[in-house]
Recover the amino acids of this structure.
């Protein structure tokens, strides 16, 4: 049996009742979409293929052109096999250009919850909405950019720089989306880590780093039977990603056993034959909307006719695409395309839960939070209110005006409504009899007036980023620095000077440097509210007033200074990926750099103790040996060790803790990071309650990529095991020997 495993909750009320039950649930969820389902889909695809002309086949693999169909990507219908006009639509947090859809939280906020149930539900609802509007292929989720560069403009679309956390989130999201019969698309494959020069840059990476960091979450995606993958704009080791034999044919299709199809990012194709012969299966959008040449369509027909692209390769492309369509059973009763349909249902509940449970409490001196019916509150900052021009005033959210809910670019949607912080605070204040002094500006003049005399002053700051085709306030996608926008540091300074109970609320696409803010004695609390989308204010009020204890944990490191990350934006034509495996906390650990707030950190309104570590292992040293299944060698997915730990809520209020498992490899594995996340669980605990987290390690979790053997290898020796509340707050230590 080939099991994909992760931390499962023991003795909890959630679906993951115990490790066995959890696995059974997982297998049940996988039923109908495993290898046998691919085989069935392929046999349907082969039969359909025999009824297609060459022109039909070329049409199936070629988009009709930008703005020439109802969706951002479209291919023509093929009546003879009942194949529809295929609709491909962004994106990772909902239906782009939808008329009445939910603006789900960005991926980074979902990761910040560390809650697989919420992440999965988000995926299920994404799929439900995509199907409801007739979208066949939803262009998400995102595992690239992985986020090695904290300034990376699109990092917020994905799940953060840890490959394990991203891998779990990819799996849950894909299985959720595809459970509703919608094809997911894992993107952008691969090493598209920055917006600057993204369409020309050459990402040069070593084999081991490719496997252990960047490819790792794609293995999860393939294991979860993702139907499609989008190749990225950049070059990989000298060849364009969309015509790179090594990554498309070698890594993705052969090594990971990917059965679906590779589509190009929009205009990421460079040549007719190179793309066809090196593993790309569908070109998007198929037009020259950026002044580029059309490369497939008639050109592909000619290339096949003159033998530059084989008929077998064209058939393979078509079979892969049709197999994805049959796998998701889109051949029967699929809704017609209507992007304007109202498909929101009750999905805003997931948005609020993810927005709320993804909030990370970074500082809470004197227990200033939760608020206790203050008589007067100051609310300061332009991002405390909705954009005065309208919540959707800026195309693809391409501005940072008013409250921030998501970054900008193709991975955005129209907000159906937007609850800004002030909206929700006002409602709460009315029921408490609290007076609010609002100053919805970032100018320091007027701050003293608004902030002094209030029981507490809430000051709102932001940092935004997005996709490079839009420039916002001079920012061309990637952030030029990690400072808050709109003079946020000065604004906080002014507020903190006027009010010694200042609470800073940060909405941001990624880390910012907080040193100036933390140096203000008046700053008593820092609430990292991330990117909460349409439920921005409601989620915040839930936490500020203690309706729930904050339970988010940082999905990335917050450094003391930008240079501490050691992974800057590359301005030249090449990114050598010299940091190798050592990104984010791996880098800080290796270099002995103290972060300001470490990966995995987050406070609560209650306290937790850790006890009773137990470690069992059946692992043996050596190389992976199984047959290839979706996701790679089958034995890599087998459980080889189990670790349990008990967490108790010793405080006075309900809360949720995220025990995290970090593994240290034995020295026989050369140059591995000092520790690597390999398990987590979210335990909801009443005061005095204890629960046990069970972390099942798969062989892949304790393997490294041996470049000489070209295989995953379990090293012999002693593995360190640490369980704790963050990557630097490790409460329990143990080991197992291999
Ligand atoms: O949407 C599908 C994938 O497209 C890539 O982003 C493209 C984005 O969708 C598209 O809106 C944008 O078009 C702009 C164009 O680049 C610009 O020259 C023109 O002036 O304005 C257009 C917007 O109106 O192009 C983007 C590519 O450059 C994404 O990378 C991918 O993730 C999407 O799934």
């Amino acid at each position: 049996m080939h099991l994909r495993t992760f931390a499962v909750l023991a003795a909890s009320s959630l679906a993951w009742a115990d490790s066995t039950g959890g696995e059974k649930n997982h297998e049940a969820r996988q039923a109908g979409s495993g290898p046998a389902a691919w085989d069935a889909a392929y046999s349907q695809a082969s039969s359909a293929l025999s009824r297609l002309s060459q022109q039909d086949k070329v049409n199936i693999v070629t988009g009709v052109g930008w703005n020439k169909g109802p969706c951002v990507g479209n291919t023509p219908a093929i009546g003879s096999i009942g194949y529809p006009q295929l609709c491909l639509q962004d994106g990772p947090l909902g239906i782009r250009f939808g008329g009445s859809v939910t603006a789900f939280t960005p991926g980074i906020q979902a990761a910040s919850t560390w809650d697989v149930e919420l992440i999965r539900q988000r995926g299920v609802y994404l799929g439900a909405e995509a199907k409801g509007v007739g979208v066949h292929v939803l262009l998400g989720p995102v595992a690239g950019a992985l986020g090695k560069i904290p300034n990376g403009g699109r990092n917020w679309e994905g799940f953060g720089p840890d490959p394990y956390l991203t891998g779990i989130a990819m799996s849950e999201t894909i299985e959720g989306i595809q459970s509703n019969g919608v094809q997911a698309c894992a993107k952008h494959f691969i090493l598209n880590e920055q917006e600057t020069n993204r369409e020309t840059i050459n990402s040069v990476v070593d084999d081991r780093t490719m496997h252990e960091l960047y490819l790792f979450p794609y293995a999860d995606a393939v294991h979860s039977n993702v139907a499609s993958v989008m190749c990225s704009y950049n070059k990989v080791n000298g060849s364009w990603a969309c015509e790179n034999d090594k990554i498309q044919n070698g890594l993705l299709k052969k090594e990971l056993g990917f059965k679906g199809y590779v589509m190009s990012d929009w205009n990421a194709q460079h040549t007719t034959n190179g793309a066809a012969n090196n593993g790309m299966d569908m070109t998007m959008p198929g037009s020259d909307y950026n002044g580029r040449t059309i490369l497939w369509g008639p050109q592909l027909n000619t290339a096949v006719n003159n033998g530059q692209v084989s008929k077998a390769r064209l058939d393979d492309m078509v079979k892969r695409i049709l197999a994805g369509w049959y796998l998701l059973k889109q051949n029967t009763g699929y809704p017609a395309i209507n992007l304007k349909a109202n498909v929101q249902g009750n999905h805003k509940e997931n948005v609020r839960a993810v927005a709320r449970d993804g909030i990370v409490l970074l500082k809470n001196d004197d227990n200033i939070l939760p608020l206790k019916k203050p008589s007067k509150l100051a609310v300061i900052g332009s991002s405390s209110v909705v954009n005065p021009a309208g919540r959707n005033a800026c195309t693809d959210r391409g501005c940072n005006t008013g409250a921030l809910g998501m970054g900008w670019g193709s991975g955005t949607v129209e907000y159906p409504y937007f609850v800004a912080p002030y909206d929700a605070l006002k409602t709460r204040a009315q029921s408490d009899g609290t007076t609010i002094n609002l100053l919805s500006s970032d100018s320091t003049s007027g701050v003293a007036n608004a902030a002094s005399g209030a029981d507490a002053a809430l000051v709102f700051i932001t940092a935004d980023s997005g996709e490079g085709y839009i420039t916002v306030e001079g920012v061309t996608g990637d952030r030029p620095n990690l400072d808050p926008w709109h003079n946020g540091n000065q604004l906080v300074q002014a507020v903190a000077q006027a009010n010694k109970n200042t609470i800073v609320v940060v909405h941001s696409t990624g880390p910012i440097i907080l040193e100036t803010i933390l140096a203000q004695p008046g700053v008593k609390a820092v609430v990292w509210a991330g990117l909460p989308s349409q439920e921005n204010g409601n989620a915040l009020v839930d936490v500020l007033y203690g309706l729930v204890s904050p339970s988010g944990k940082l999905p990335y490191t917050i450094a003391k200074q930008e240079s501490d990350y050691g992974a800057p934006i590359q301005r030249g034509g090449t990114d050598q990926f010299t940091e190798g495996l050592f990104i984010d906390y791996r880098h800080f650990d290796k270099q002995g750099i103290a972060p300001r707030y470490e990966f995995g950190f987050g406070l609560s309104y209650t306290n937790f103790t850790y006890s009773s570590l137990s470690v069992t292992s059946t692992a043996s040293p050596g190389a992976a040996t199984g047959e290839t299944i979706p996701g790679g060698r089958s034995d890599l997915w087998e459980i080889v060790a189990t670790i349990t730990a008990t967490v108790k809520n010793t405080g006075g209020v309900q809360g949720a803790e995220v025990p995290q498992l970090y593994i240290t490899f034995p020295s026989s594995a050369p140059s591995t990071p000092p520790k690597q996340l390999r398990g987590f669980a979210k335990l909801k605990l009443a005061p005095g309650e204890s629960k046990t987290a069970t972390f099942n390690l798969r062989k892949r979790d304790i393997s490294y990529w041996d470049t000489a053997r070209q295989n995953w290898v379990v090293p012999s020796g002693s593995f360190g095991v640490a369980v704790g509340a963050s990557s630097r707050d490790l409460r329990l230590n143990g080991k197992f020997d291999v």
Remarks:
- The chain is about 25% helix and 20% strand.
- Residues 72, 90-91, 139, 187, 265-266, 290, 410, 469 surround L2SNVXEC (CB under 6 Å).
- Residues 1-31 have pLDDT under 50 and may be disordered.
- The CA atoms of residues 620 and 738 lie 5 Å apart.
